[in-house]
Specification:
Oligomer: single chain
CATH superfamily: NAD(P)-binding Rossmann-like Domain
Strand content: 15-25%
Number of domains: 1
Shape: globular
CATH architecture: 3-Layer(aba) Sandwich
Low-confidence stretches: none
Number of strands: 7
Helix content: 25-40%
CATH class: Alpha Beta
Amino acid sequence: MITEDEFYSNLIKRHTKEVHNKINSNKIAIAGIGGLGSYIAVSLARAGIGGLLLVDFDKVDISNLNRQHYSIKHIGKYKTEALKEQIKEINPFTDIKTLNKKVTSYNAADIFGQYKIVIEAFDIAEQKAMLVNTLLSQCKNTKIISASGMAGYKSANDIITKKINNRFYISGDFVTESDNTPLMPPRVMVCAGHEANMALRIILDETNP
């Protein structure tokens, strides 16, 4: 088992001490830890994020395995428990908090209001809109990164990140939804990478398009 000093010394060599300290001193909340959220969380943990809040009420199902960061052994487990287990094997020094609860317009501000960065990773458009609108209106110090359009197998180059305003960013191709198009792992992972990267850019004050 490596020590915390060994783990972070390696990150400092790669990121520089200044960059590492900024990333490691921040905590991020992720709403939904399926195809997008699970890969976002793993990316941020590998980057050395100080803490993560993982929010989801669902359990791992066989149908999740084609695009989510889970294994057969996780089937039947709460996604929050399964993902925390995986992250602890990657970066045991990230503070992981979990919440098995369905997010609504009535509890979203209480759940996420203390976080400066919230990443929306829901599947359903109405849920996405609900979370974004609630946090923008009720949590004035929170920045939100959302996603729209990552299904199918068209060019991954169509997936981009847009800055809507100083508190709201969206990643995706903004067209291809999963209602009529299958969710394929490469494009889901690309979009997840965009969301995770945008979170790091916000932390590092690199927020221009």
